[in-house]
# Entry
Amino acid sequence: MSVSATEGEALAEGIELRFTLPRTGFDLEVDLRLPARGITVLHGPSGSGKTSVLRCVAGLERPHNGYVRIGDQIWQDDRRGHFLPTWRRALGYVFQEASLFEHLDVRANLHFGLRRDSDSRARQSLAEAIELLGIGHLLGRAPHALSGGERQRIAIARALAARPRVLLLDEPLSAIDHSRRQEILPWLERMRDELEMPMIHVTHSADEVARLATYLVVLEAGRVKASGAVAGVLSSLDLPVVVGEDAAALLEGELLERDVAWHLARVGFAGGSLWVADGGLPLGRRVRLRVLARDVSITTQEPGYTSIQNHVRGVVESMAGDVHPSQVLVRLRCGDSVLLARVTRRAMASLELGPGRPVWAQVKSVALVQ
# Structure
């Protein structure tokens, strides 16, 4: 299921999408180049065109002026009159609801799709998917005895067994309650880190963006508002993804130290370090930190005698208006990383904040999302 590749090969094997699709109220227009591995998240409000993009990749919709390339395979090229039907596209598609055969147990559901492709490679792919998703103990169960999260893991394993060139995930967690969603997210993270194939994941959940995305595409009314590495897109000040209470920065770091006495762990990132609640992860583990803008305050002097324990030196890079006219979002450059802070315009004026101003960021709360 996994094939090693150099970074150059990964770029060459990426995904290229160019097409237009008329929708009610707008035309979906896409011109994207996506990475060859990891999870590309399509994010945006309901009705922005996210699922339509997946359907065009799958061949379930035929867009105008279309060009769809997955690695070295061209699935659509309207300039040459080429269109590969869905059944000939090597893809896996996971929907919001896991459509399992209720009269078959899990093992039979997983093997059903192998009847036409029963060679050893297909069976090996299925065995790897079962191990990757941790579902070996579920093989004898009936679908009605599975939780929502377990059903979706079965559906994903079934899609992976077909050895797809790309895995399409259309809001697979939207029909699952919060606790079951937290149960399946670690398995999706494992897929992102271990599978050397591209995945395109549709969601409007900021939490899923923070936890899963390696590459982020922001859609609004059929237009690509932004695309790029997830940390850079999230920390931009002029995108719809960062407005409101979900405005946050994403930091990639490593667990460096554990303070057993106070049940804390220190995470180092490119620009400083932050103490977080110790969740028992091993030292050296790569993790992600999500820092909400509302949890960051700014001071022009090094903090002292404060209950806020996380202080990071930075420089004001830019500022932009927030949802309410009394507030602004401040983008802080902290070494090679970025934090966002939400402050009032009054505070901005009294601190004389502006681009280039050295400051200290006080981080009141940090979420370890991986």
